Amino acid sequence: MSIISKEDVKHVAKLAELDFSDSEVEKITPQLDKILGHVANISKVDTAAISPTSHTLEIKNVFREDTVRESLSKEDDHLNAPEEMDGGFKVPKID
Amino acid sequence: MNQQKDTYKKIDSKYETVIGLETHVELSTATKMFCGCKLSFGADPNTCTCPVCLGHPGTLPVINKKAIDYAIKIALALNCTTNNYSIFHRKNYFYPDMPKNYQISQYDLPISSRGYLDVDMGDYIRRVGITRVHLEEDTGKLIHTGTSGRISESAASIVDFNRAGTPLIEIVTEPDIGSPAEAKEYLISLRNLLLYLDVSDCSMEEGSLRCDANVSVKLAGTEGLGTKAEIKNMNSFKFLQKGLEYEVARQVELLESGKKVIQQTRHYDHITDSTKALRSKEEAHDYRYFPEPDLVPMHIEESTVKEIRAAIPELPFEKTARFVSQFGISIYDCRFLVADRNLAEYFEKCCALYSNAKTVANWLMGDFSALLNKEGILISASKITPEKLTCMLEMIDSGKISSKIAKSVFEEMFATGADPQNIIESKGLEQISDEGMIESVIDKVIGENPETVEQFRSGKVKALGFLVGQVMAQTRGKANPKLVNEILLKKLK
Fold first, then answer.
1. A88 domain residue, yes or no
2. Interchain contact, B161 vs A64, CB within 8 Å
3. Is this structure's pTM higher than 0.95?
4. What is the complex's ipTM, to 2 decimals?
């Protein structure tokens, strides 16, 4: 039995803003299924005595003071922008 | 007409309205939530940005301690339980105003939950349950090109990331609000509370306080909830109430005509005063939250909570109750005074110097507020100190100036900040209470107006007003009006 269906792949692709052709979905689905199957091995570990965690590091409460640090210059801010306009990052029409 | 009214009444009692509000508040910290960029509304686009808030690869967020303290302060003031273990989550979605393509927010372990806010509705108190108070980061701002500024008509958009990463508090209520009017009062009370806590400027015009609503209607007395709609873009107290009123009526109409309410997000348009469905995105609610791996958990110590609790000032609800009992003024007056923290402080300072609280309240609510509004300044920036105001009130009480003259003294004080005593002396405004002096003016007026005097004597009571007016005019408004009346009546007998 497969873990992931073609519909799941299409849904996730859409969420990730990726376009796949039908033949690509056909090809990717069994590959992802295999990966997920491999990852699923983790669930064989007995975790009954282990409390859940979202972080592996034994640290907590890492804060900074509310003091201003210098921001980037206007030029540096835009250095990686493919397009700019009126001091802002220009993006295509949103739909 | 009557029939229409009856139909409305019938519908009104047939259905119950259920509203829950989600309020976003930008905190007034000096820097952003996860980096040291300065918060500055209205700065040139993209001048308060750095690799962290621009979402450059390889950067790491670090939590602003002050934002956490503010969040705890808000939570405590809303009677919430602060959760001693709390973490951040990533909320994943694509939109150009989000540089990272995820927003750092909180999910199932928010900073606090389960509280309430008591909302004073005048003749009853509505207790609104608070589901949660959590922290997140604000997005950037999109400016749509083209003259209309509308998304649908623009060829491109410009992104300003100055706002991206601003600490944002989300306050979610239980579906406890029973009418659009209650929703408006809730938001007014919440805003006032936040202003007292000094954690945000709460400007609805500038977008530092924003409110969305979930609203549904159901047959009165039935269990469960009707299908809800989420209403966005109600960016003033008035529009919140109007938008909800429209939506409630729309839903009732649907149900009355046998149709169903569809769960959707709707946009309020204040020009047409109606709500319109936004194009539904089927993936919209699949945010794939997962714990933010770049931030470590927060363990909020009991001592921190204690310290913050101790620093919370007296809040509006309690202050109103105290003003009523301590100063014996009406609840209406108290609400007006307490609605502005600075005004309430000013009022108390005056009452420490002067015994008649009602007189102070009247001046503050009347002439003072009118001038402040006209000049667009806050009472804290006014040149009239509580000492000067109460000194002027003492002068009215002792008969040194008339209440009419007091108005012009007040205006002069407001404009120049001068001492009332100096104003009266330099302008010769002191009230004339010397009976001999008043008598001589009255004799003169009687002599000049024999016809009016005759009219009064033959029973035309109104003629007295004219004579009083003449006396006041000849003394340039300075004669003690009470004495003028007394002496004049005696002489006319």
1. no
2. no
3. no
4. 0.87
